[in-house]
Description:
Elements: H1 18-30, H2 35-41, H3 45-48, E1 50-53, E2 56-59, H4 69-80, H5 82-90, H6 105-108, E3 117-118, E4 121-122, H7 124-143, E5 156-160, H8 167-175, E6 185-189, H9 194-203, E7 209-214, H10 221-236, H11 245-248, E8 249-253, H12 256-262, E9 269-271, H13 288-294, H14 296-315, H15 322-336, E10 341-346, H16 354-366, E11 384-387, H17 390-393, H18 398-403, E12 410-417, H19 423-442, H20 446-455, H21 460-470, E13 478-485, H22 488-509, H23 520-535, H24 544-556
Parallel strand pairs: 5-6, 5-7, 7-8, 8-9, 10-11, 10-12, 12-13
Antiparallel strand pairs: 1-2, 2-13, 3-4
Helix pairs in contact: 1-4, 4-15, 8-13, 8-16, 13-14, 14-22, 15-22, 16-22, 20-21
Bound molecules: 6-O-phosphono-beta-D-fructofuranose (F6P).
Amino acid sequence: MRSVRQAISNDTSLINSPAWQALRKHHAETESLHMLDLFEADTNRFVNFSVEHEELLLDYSKNRITSETLPLLFELAKQAGVESWRQQLFSGEKINTTEGRSVLHTALRNCSNTSIHSDGEDVMPLVNAELDKMRGFTEKVRSGEWRGFTSKPITDIVNIGIGGSDLGPNMVCTALQPYAKDNLRVHFVSNVDALQIKQTLEKVNAETTLFIIASKTFTTQETLTNANSARAWFLKQPNTEEGDIAKHFVAASTNSVAVSAFGIDTTNMFQFWDWVGGRYSLWSAVGLSIMLYIGMDQYQKLLEGAHSMDQHFAEQPLESNMPVILALLGVWYANFYGAESQAILPYDHNLGLLPAYLEQADMESNGKSVRRDGKAVGYSTGPIVWGAEGINGQHAFYQLLHQGTRVIPADFIASVQSQADDQYHADILASNFLAQTEALMRGRSLDETRHELETAGVSGAEAEMRLPHMYFEGNQPTNSIVMDQLTPYNLGSIVAMYEHKIFVQGVIWNINSYDQWGVELGKKLAKNVLEELESGEDKFEHDSSTAGLLNWFRKKR
Ligand code: F6P
């Protein structure tokens, strides 16, 4: 028997630490409490367990916590050195140790423009110069000064990228669609399935389309395949020639050599740096599609909103710090209640892609089983993040939230004012948002259920038979995150809030949240399999399942 785990020694110092042990004891003492009783005991619970930052409200009162829980969790954060790690993050220390890199997405939105150093160099002049270049380009495209090969202005932006080079800009453009310029559309192509690029190309006109090839490394197979297909399609259009590529293809990348080798003039390349993680890159040149779509001023507000959350995170004491509180509640459920997942449930239609965005942000960051020092963690780390628009989920998967067997912490996210400016719809949406978190917290007791049945005229054996099925335990934890309206500024704040939440959890679990070695093995094997699929020769050894499937594809392709 081969066990990879055997090679890595385990470490139990965190779970044996005083703060962890105190939390374990507290959990044993409070696990059986019901939130409804806690609300009855403290009529000020909403005020006591909520925090505001500008137009954002975080109500965390519907959690399985008493007045003692958070102080114990803050002790854990202090023991883990969250304050000192936070300082290291903002000051450009190389906290991504396995790649020897600083982690400076916060510099990209450092609207205060204070110096931030990486490798002894102030990065702010680089950041500002690139932002100016993006602004200049955006101005030309949006004003119609930038022309395609037949001298027509640009009407369609196609962003070709995957992972962080797709999810962030796609999520933000979708969220901020009401801020978009009328005569400019944006499309996103990520899947290497030819269908997506083909369907997109069918919708656009080569004369008026601008392709942004977004790839931090500029080596990603899916992105380069789609980019090559787009270029081939472009060059097949009547009257196009190689020289026209410069008017229709630009790149967002850290790799100027590869961009140039692809055939994009590096004057049309928007640069970022290795200290920007792919999943944290929407604030960099990867955000070019966003800037083009909503304009420079609104993009600036997105940066400002994020910067304001950075300042909140950097300066607020742990006790009133939104990302810290969210992170600690997540640790409470993951490590003491054994919760395996974290649901993200937006009640704003335009936030529909937020769950997918946060899946990458969280799971690629904290899906780790080895500590910073290479020892295996002896506890759960990042949760399975999942979700969908809350209102649709109510009619689909909420059954499991209400009556399933698992503890599933859920973030409910809503805007008070709808972007649609329709109070009738907005009130129905808000009432569902409010009712669901209340129902998940309260549940419905046997007496209440019996009474409900009686009112409906059901009694006797029939009522007793139905009773257990209609009973709700409740006590399901939720956070309510409410913003005045889904604006660029508020969206920036919310995204930054989640980024810092993920960071704090990584610090507590003592893992490196900024590498992603786990995605490499599949990429390497896919290259081998592709060779075999195309050559028909068996060059590598496979298990019988993979070999059987490979042959199945070969026979049927
Ligand atoms: O394979 C995972 C990953 O490296 C992500 O971390 C990244 O966001 C994505 O692929 C795309 O990478 P790139 O921007 O280099 O094409």
